[in-house]
């Protein structure tokens, strides 16, 4: 039987206990909706439907190719990405967007040079959770979380008033636990539906398979670097993936034409999608690669996934020094999103021409309209840091 400590009086109790018999502390387990922290419910509704729609686009573009055979290479541009893409145009209502919790978590974390000792921080070490996940609290001031679906690597921890806390970007929540000697267990809680309160017990080491797999990605176009950051490559371009976007295992992982990533904020009932689409050269209409052809191609691509589309003006920008075009959009998920259909979404599509393949690489960001956290800034930062390989 899994045992936990009562956070108030320290009594050892079964993990199923609803209230401590000694001090009356009520455990929060039953107060929360039992939402899976891995949020796999999004997978079949987003990854699969996007791939189906993309396949439909490929068929559509192939049909056009017989009539539209002339392509035009994109010219290089030294212009930089605008400081702020037109997300708050008349098309997109951005009144309720706020700052990301990740920003505030990072700014409040202590600056730790070198390493710290276990004497000052008795919770340092490796812990195994009651759900068979793992958490490491390291002396460099960072923590890493490993579960069956993904990893959150090198998240800064804070320690104050006998409480250790850390922000998990992929779950959009801060977890915390009270520290008491000899600190063999930590009971992590969060005021967030994304996290089911869980007891972690100190263990000797992290299984080798977890350490090994933490450096891998489900998508074969993603590389996990030594510092835990991820780079995604499509065609001749590579992009640093924002940390909160989860790379679920789906049928797009081995598809060179399309890749998708999901950021789900269960607490606030909103989500964001990051989609990379490698379009065939038939998206370059007879007029060549310009605002007109981008406008037509972006409408063609997005109409496969959204109904009631409305667009902002087309703007010229650059991605990795190459001329690119972008525009904002809003619409509703269509039938390809099954249970998520009819959700109001807003976003941005940016496309850049790949000279090597003769295709356009389109990077699409969409988030629930009225989302608490505006993740478009992470999208902008990703494009600004794109590289040509």
Your description of this structure?
The protein is an alpha+beta fold and 389 residues long. Helices cover 15% and strands 33% of the residues. The chain has 5 helices and 21 strands. The protein has helices at 43-65, 101-108, 208-213, 291-302, 376-384; strands spanning 3-5, 12-14, 125-129, 134-137, 142-146, 151-160, 163-168, 173-178, 185-188, 198-203, 222-224, 230-234, 237-240, 258-265, 270-279, 306-311, 315-319, 322-333, 344-354, 359-368, 387-388. The strands form 4 sheets. Strands 8-7-6-5-4-3-10-9 form an 8-stranded antiparallel sheet, covered by helices on one side. Strand 5 (142-146) and strand 6 (151-160) form a beta hairpin. It starts with a strand and ends with a strand. Residues 29-40 and 61-114 have low confidence and may be disordered.
What can be said about this structure in brief?
By secondary structure, the chain is an alpha+beta fold. Helices cover 15% and strands 33% of the residues. The protein is elongated, with a radius of gyration of 23 Å.
């Amino acid at each position: 039987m899994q045992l936990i400590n009562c956070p108030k009086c320290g009594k050892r109790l079964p993990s199923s206990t609803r209230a401590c018999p000694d001090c009356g502390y009520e455990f929060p387990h039953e107060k929360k909706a039992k939402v899976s922290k891995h949020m796999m419910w999004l997978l079949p509704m987003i990854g699969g439907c996007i791939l189906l729609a993309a396949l439909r686009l490929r068929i559509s573009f192939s049909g056009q190719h017989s009539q539209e055979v002339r392509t035009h290479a994109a010219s290089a541009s030294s212009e930089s990405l605008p400081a702020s893409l037109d997300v708050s145009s008349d098309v997109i209502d951005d009144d309720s967007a706020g700052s990301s919790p990740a920003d505030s978590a990072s700014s409040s974390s202590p600056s730790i040079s070198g390493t710290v000792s276990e004497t000052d921080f008795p919770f340092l070490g490796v812990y195994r959770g009651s759900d068979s996940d793992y958490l490491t609290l390291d002396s460099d001031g960072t923590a890493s979380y490993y579960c069956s679906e993904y990893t959150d690597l090198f998240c800064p921890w804070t320690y104050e008033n006998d409480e250790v806390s850390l922000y998990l970007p992929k779950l959009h929540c801060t977890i915390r636990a009270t520290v008491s000697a000899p600190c063999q267990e930590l009971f992590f809680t969060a005021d967030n539906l994304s996290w089911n309160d869980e007891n972690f017990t100190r263990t000797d080491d992290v299984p080798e398979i977890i350490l090994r797999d933490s450096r891998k990605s489900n998508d074969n176009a993603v590389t996990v670097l030594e510092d835990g950051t991820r780079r995604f490559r499509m065609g001749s371009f590579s992009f640093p993936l924002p940390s909160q976007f989860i790379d679920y295992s789906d049928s797009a992982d081995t598809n060179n034409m399309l890749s998708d990533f999901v950021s789900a904020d269960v607490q606030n009932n909103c989500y964001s999608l990051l989609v990379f689409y490698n379009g065939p050269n038939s998206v370059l209409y007879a007029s060549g690669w310009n605002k007109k052809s981008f406008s037509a191609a972006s409408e063609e691509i997005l109409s496969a996934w959204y109904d009631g589309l409305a667009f902002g003006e087309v703007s010229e920008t650059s991605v990795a020094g190459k001329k690119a075009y972008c525009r904002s959009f809003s619409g509703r998920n269509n039938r390809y999103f099954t249970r998520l259909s009819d959700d109001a979404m807003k976003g941005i599509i940016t496309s850049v021409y790949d000279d090597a393949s003769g295709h356009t690489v389109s990077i699409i960001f969409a988030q629930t309209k009225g989302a608490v956290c505006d993740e478009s800034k992470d999208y902008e930062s990703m494009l600004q840091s794109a590289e040509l390989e």
